[in-house]
User: Which sequence fits this backbone?
């Protein structure tokens, strides 16, 4: 549809999953846009609405403009030109992939890995069968790229879950539960999953860990065949704490070395972790500093004997786009399928690493944990009737719009 001299189309992802609940007129506007030719006009929309509603034209025009403007701001209506720009960024990555013969491409091109097999956690994720238990936003660090440090995401989670407190509730599928409530709610849909991931904040902070241990033990004993893993920045990953986690059922530990500036102390803890857990991974968002840190310390990291490196395409949230000093170092942004944006450079850094790793034959699996992959796994879960990220504003339900991204890119030149 042409509106304000620009072409627009409905974003299928945001339309289905962006908490979009239009009224009757809004539904008729959506129906018109999705069923009419791409060159349909605002005037044609108003004529269509006038045939259905006994309302004066001025009121219909005002209501329709307000609805369309809101849809544009929320990326429910997107400019196809922006979509094509995003597709061009992904196509460039696909060309790089073709130049690396050791790379394994799977699932219609959405999954790309150097080496195999994946850890059980990633295997579950690729099947759309993993559950995420968030024990709170409390953390001993303040990483600029963290999705939980500002905006509505921060308001959604209980503020009492700070750096000194224990677990007040667990967030699961966008809702908050007590431990007792979570046991019931999970049991109702347990057959949809085969693994659990425990995240924060920092779930290994002392009081949080103390509260989490009996929960992890319960799920291990109740669902013994389900794989459990935990994410940590490594600050509290002492031998004692890691052994406590193993004893209650954690079988995979993932370290965000970027959060601690690739601390040698934490890298040494990864080596110790490999003596305790069957699987140890590094998972980092691919920013400029993450890439530089990894290239500086990769030999030490490989020496730990870790099983896998997950190089995650950095997903930009409200906090980052509204406080852009750090983000400006990453360069221009692009939008992927109308549901998330990332720096163009993020995945380019990933493939600089993968290319070097392939040439030097690094003894580790490397996963390109991209927006393409996340789109694939969420599509699986939606088709299974479950969305583990429902309500997660920090990622794909951001308040910023494509217009905000365009303004950011204009500033970058």
Assistant:
């Amino acid at each position: 549809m042409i509106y304000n001299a620009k072409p627009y189309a409905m974003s299928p992802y945001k339309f289905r999953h962006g908490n979009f609940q239009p009224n009757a007129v809004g539904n008729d506007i959506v129906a018109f846009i999705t069923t009419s030719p791409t060159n349909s006009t605002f005037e044609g929309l108003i004529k269509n609405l006038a045939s259905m509603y006994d309302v004066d034209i001025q009121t219909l025009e005002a209501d329709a403009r307000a609805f369309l403007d809101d849809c544009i701001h929320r990326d429910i209506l997107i400019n196809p030109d922006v979509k094509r720009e995003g597709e061009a960024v992904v196509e460039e990555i696909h060309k790089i992939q073709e130049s690396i013969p050791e790379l394994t491409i799977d699932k219609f091109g959405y999954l790309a890995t150097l080496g195999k097999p994946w850890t059980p956690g990633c295997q579950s994720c690729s099947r759309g069968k993993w559950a995420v238990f968030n024990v709170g936003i409390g953390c001993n660090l303040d990483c600029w790229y963290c999705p939980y440090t500002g905006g509505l995401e921060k308001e959604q989670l209980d503020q009492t879950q700070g750096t000194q407190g224990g677990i007040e509730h667990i967030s699961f599928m966008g809702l908050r539960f007590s431990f007792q409530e979570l046991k019931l709610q999970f049991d109702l849909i347990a057959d949809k999953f085969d693994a659990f991931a425990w995240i924060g904040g920092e779930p290994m902070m002392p009081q949080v860990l103390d509260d989490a241990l009996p929960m992890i033990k319960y799920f291990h004993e109740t669902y013994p065949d389900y794989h459990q893993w935990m994410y940590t920045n490594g600050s509290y990953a002492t031998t004692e704490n890691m052994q406590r986690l193993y004893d209650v059922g954690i079988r995979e530990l993932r370290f965000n070395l970027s959060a601690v500036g690739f601390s040698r102390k934490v890298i040494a803890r990864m080596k110790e972790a490999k003596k305790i857990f069957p699987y140890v991974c590094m998972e980092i968002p691919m920013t400029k500093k993450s890439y530089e840190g990894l290239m500086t310390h990769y030999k030490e990291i490989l020496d730990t004997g870790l099983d896998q490196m997950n190089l995650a395409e950095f997903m930009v949230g409200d906090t980052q786009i509204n406080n852009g000093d750090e983000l400006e170092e990453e360069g221009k942004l692009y939008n992927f399928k109308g549901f998330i944006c990332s720096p163009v450079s993020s995945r380019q850094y990933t493939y600089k690493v993968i290319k070097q790793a392939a040439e030097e034959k690094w003894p580790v699996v490397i996963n390109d944990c991209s927006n393409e992959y996340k789109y694939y796994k969420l599509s699986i879960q939606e088709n299974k009737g479950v969305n583990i990220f429902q309500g997660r504003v920090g990622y794909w339900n951001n308040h910023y719009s494509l217009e905000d991204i365009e303004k950011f890119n204009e500033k970058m030149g």
User: Anything to note?
Assistant: The two ends are 29 Å apart (CA to CA). The longest strand covers residues 279-285. Residues 98 and 138 are 42 Å apart (CA to CA). The longest helix spans residues 80-98.
